[in-house]
Hints:
The chain is of the alpha+beta class. It has 2 domains: 7-93, no CATH class; 151-307, Reverse transcriptase/Diguanylate cyclase domain (Alpha-Beta Plaits, 2-Layer Sandwich), CATH 3.30.70.270. The protein contains 9 helices and 6 strands. A hairpin with a 4-residue loop joins strand 4 and strand 5. The radius of gyration is 33 Å and the shape is elongated. It starts with 6 loop residues before the first helix and ends with a helix.
Amino acid sequence: MKKFRSIKSRAMVAVSLALIVLVAFSTLISYIFYSDALDSYIKDASRDEARFQFFIIFTCSMILIAVVLIFITSALMDLCVVKPVTDMTRAISEISFDEDGMIRGEDDSKHSLKKLEINSGDEMEELYKTLKKFQLDTSEYLISMRDDSWEKEHDSMTMLANGVKFNKRKKEVYPYADSIYIACLNIINLHVVNDKISSEAGDGIISKVARELRRLNSENIHAYRLEEDHFLLVFCGYLEEEAISVLTKWVDRVGRLNRNSDEFECRLVWGGAYGEGLFDVDDVYKHADTELYCNTAVTKKNLKSEES
Length: 308
């Protein structure tokens, strides 16, 4: 984890360094020139002239160090405080809201905060992250405020969010996440269960998968049912390796979906894609769907060879 360094501590370090330089420089000046002044006093017996010479030299050196100190402090404040605050203010000012949601500026301000990339490790970075979270939470709040009904955005059978909810978040929430991992899931051989056993048995398998998805569902993991046997998982703010690890363990835990006595196997297959930084949610989803298509074909082929 990155070490937190406050602006106050940075300023104190800078001032301390400047004072160290001041003392060292003053000592050096006084040693060199006061020795000359002392020699002058000894040779010419002019103490007043020597003291005046030393006073002028020492005063000028102090003035020079003070100017340098002011310049360093000003540059530090501009770099660590003024510029980040100005950039964040401009980014926030480009975003406005109405009853329909978020209105972006003409210069693609939906990524303005992400473009700043403030990694200073101090209060400015904390403020930057807080503003990004506020933007994400506000988007979620606007979505919930303008919902006509809960049923409109959820599947009545599984109680999972549906495609309507996903499309809203795809436009208004996910573009503001630091990263997303989208996983498309299918139930292999569900149609065989419906044909050979019963549609009720098929519904039971769907309900089982939905129950496990609801357990996985959280603030940063969103589960959807898009079609009969097609589900979706979106991981927000996860590293790709973390999302794959969570998903793999979950699929292994769900395991076989039909009875062991059946001549065929019914189980989940998935394909995923990762987006980080400046990404397009539609592109990530398309790559995940393509990966699912390939994995489905391979899994069906393997299951047929095992059955034979």
